[in-house]
Write a structure and sequence with these properties.
Low-confidence stretches: none
Shape: globular
Number of helices: 15
Helix content: 55-70%
Strand order of the largest sheet: 2-3-1-4
Number of domains: 2
Structural class: alpha+beta
Bound molecules: zinc ion
Largest sheet: 4 strands, mixed
Length: about 325
Amino acid sequence: MMEMIDHYQPDYVVRFDADACQCPACQQAPEGWPRVNVALKNQQRESLAMACESAAKAILLDPEAFNLKVSHAEPQGEQMLSPWDEMLNQQCINLAVHPSMPLEVSLYAIGVLLSKAQQYLDKGESDPMLLLAMGEQLAMLAEEGILEQQFGELPPIPQNSLAALKEMGQLRLALNLPMAEKMGVMLKLSELAIMPTSRLEERLKELELADTQVLLFTEQLQIMRNFLIYKLYHDVFPGVACANYGEAYLQLVTTFFRIRMLCALGANDEGVLPTQTALVLISALSAWELQHPVTAEQNTTSDYSLLCGLSLL
Ligand SMILES: [Zn+2]
């Protein structure tokens, strides 16, 4: 008899009705898309591709989206999820859903966890209990308010944010928005690539200020929290058999930085960003990043990438 393995199905998959979606990505997609099965040899995770707008809506708006149904299935994949990788992913998820952590502090805590995990990995240690202990310690520090304080004391490295913003000038997003809105966002993005540094610095300040006011982040924090949990679950973050946690972290945090900037760019003059527009922006960015993944600078260490990532929070 074949051995059975765990098969996870989140609520956003159960409730999703693929037939109803007419988004541009679905119209070009093969049969079955946007349904995705992350099939590992010892575990399966059902999910949806964020590049579909209806999928983005199902994943990001529902507070219950990540309720998991566990069943058993026959193994399909070839790649094994090691106990170390599984525990690291689980600890990242725990930090992402911890009730006493604001979103940025969750991201910060994940960075601290990965930094420590990389040290263990480099020393050849692979006991998952080390990660469990670290995750619990971070949760305790968060409850005591110490983590948030440490996060607040991170030295700013403005040139990293500037470089990340400038790079956004290269994004070519397939935005399913009315023509005027679409042109507006695309123009604002392409300007970033050619702005002189002093102007770019001003622009960054404007966007950071707008970002704190955009409705998305005051009234709809759910979207960003769900986005984080989705990335961790869907990508089995930091990845199956990943050896460079710094690079994985830099990718994750760069995506968050880009979403914040995109939402600030996409908001109207009153600082309002309709939820539907936010979903379109996030969905289009996901499609782009799948084709054009963020990579760490060549010949840099995991620690260096981690520091770059932290400076983008
Ligand atoms: Zn779709």
